């Protein structure tokens, strides 16, 4: 039972970190600069995606997952270090 509780806590922690990264990491600009627009159009053409907004969302979800994963790993390492010290 304790193992299940620990696993559920870890899943909840990761989901909470992901939600926080969605809220605070993504740039909330709605207009792209000309360079950004050209880059997203080129990437969407290269990938065969019709809409560059789709590429934009995939890029930012990937970045947010990386941020959430790094935060999760850091919290787990700090927790293990804290438990070995006490």
Tell me the layout of helices and strands.
Blueprint: H1 2-24, H2 34-47, H3 52-85
Helix pairs in contact: 1-3, 2-3
What does this structure look like?
The protein is an all-alpha fold. It has one domain (2-27, 41-85). It is 83% helix and 0% strand. The protein contains three helices and no strands. The radius of gyration is 18 Å and the shape is elongated.
Report the span from N to C terminus: 24 Å
Give the number of DSSP strands. Answer: 0
Quick check: average pLDDT?
90
Domain count: 1
Helix amount: over 70%
Morphology call: elongated
Largest sheet: none
A few lines on this structure:
The chain is mainly α and 86 residues long.
Which features does this protein show?
about 90 residues; mainly alpha
């Amino acid at each position: 039972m304790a193992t299940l509780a620990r696993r559920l806590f870890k899943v909840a922690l990761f989901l909470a970190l992901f939600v926080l990264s969605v809220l605070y990491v993504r740039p909330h600009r709605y207009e792209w600069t000309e360079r950004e627009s050209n880059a997203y159009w080129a990437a969407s053409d290269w990938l065969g995606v019709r809409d560059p907004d789709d590429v934009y969302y995939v890029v930012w979800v990937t970045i947010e997952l990386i941020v959430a994963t790094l935060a999760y790993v850091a919290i787990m390492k700090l927790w293990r270090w804290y438990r070995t010290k006490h």
